[in-house]
């Protein structure tokens, strides 16, 4: 059973799922205008939990704690190497092996499976937003 922080991260998924169908927009951080992958994660945690995460996927990876895949809980972050460099793409773990993300230009925020061939080959790891420590850094 998740602790309070886990329940808060899972609660952010309500907002994250509301983004499904929002168009990809490079540099975007806005529900109405579109989002890129890290803008989607940043907006979800800011609006859903009041947590200020950094802007890029790589910075978000640095600001969060690594966890094993077996420890994934809803609301954790999943990272991928999609541009030939570590932590170049990020999504939010939903549960049951799925994550939500903003994949690429011309696409929309959507659900994917971690075990899909494309994502499995590019998986960089899972990380957890430590709710109290990230909030303290944001103040």
UniProtKB/TrEMBL annotation:
One Gene Ontology biological process? proteolysis
Has keyword Cell membrane? Answer: no
Q: Tell me the PROSITE patterns matching this sequence.
A: NLPC_P60
Q: Which InterPro entries match?
A: NLP_P60_dom, Papain-like_cys_pep_sf, Peptidase_C40
Signal peptide residue numbers: none
Family stated for the protein in its record = Belongs to the peptidase C40 family.
Documented EC number(s)? 3.4.-.-
Instruction: Provide this UniProt record's keywords sorted from A to Z.
Output: Hydrolase, Protease, Thiol protease
Q: What class does this enzyme belong to in the EC scheme?
A: hydrolase
Q: What is this protein called?
A: Murein DD-endopeptidase MepH
Q: Which residues belong to any copy of the NlpC/P60 domain?
A: 6-130
The Gene Ontology terms for molecular function here are: cysteine-type peptidase activity
Pfam families named among the record's database cross-references: NLPC_P60 (PF00877)
């Amino acid at each position: 059973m998740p602790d309070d922080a886990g329940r808060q991260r899972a609660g952010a998924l309500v907002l994250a799922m509301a983004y499904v169908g929002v168009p990809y927009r490079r540099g975007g951080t806005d529900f109405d205008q579109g989002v890129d992958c890290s803008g989607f994660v940043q907006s979800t945690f800011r609006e859903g939990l009041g947590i200020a995460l950094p802007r890029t996927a790589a910075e978000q990876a640095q600001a969060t704690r690594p966890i094993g895949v077996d420890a994934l809980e809803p609301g954790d972050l999943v990272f991928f190497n999609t541009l030939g460099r570590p932590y170049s793409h990020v999504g939010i773990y939903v549960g049951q092996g799925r994550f939500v993300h903003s994949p690429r230009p011309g696409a929309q925020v959507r659900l994917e499976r971690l075990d899909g061939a494309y994502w499995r080959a590019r998986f960089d790891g899972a990380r957890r937003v430590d709710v109290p420590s990230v909030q303290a850094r944001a103040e």
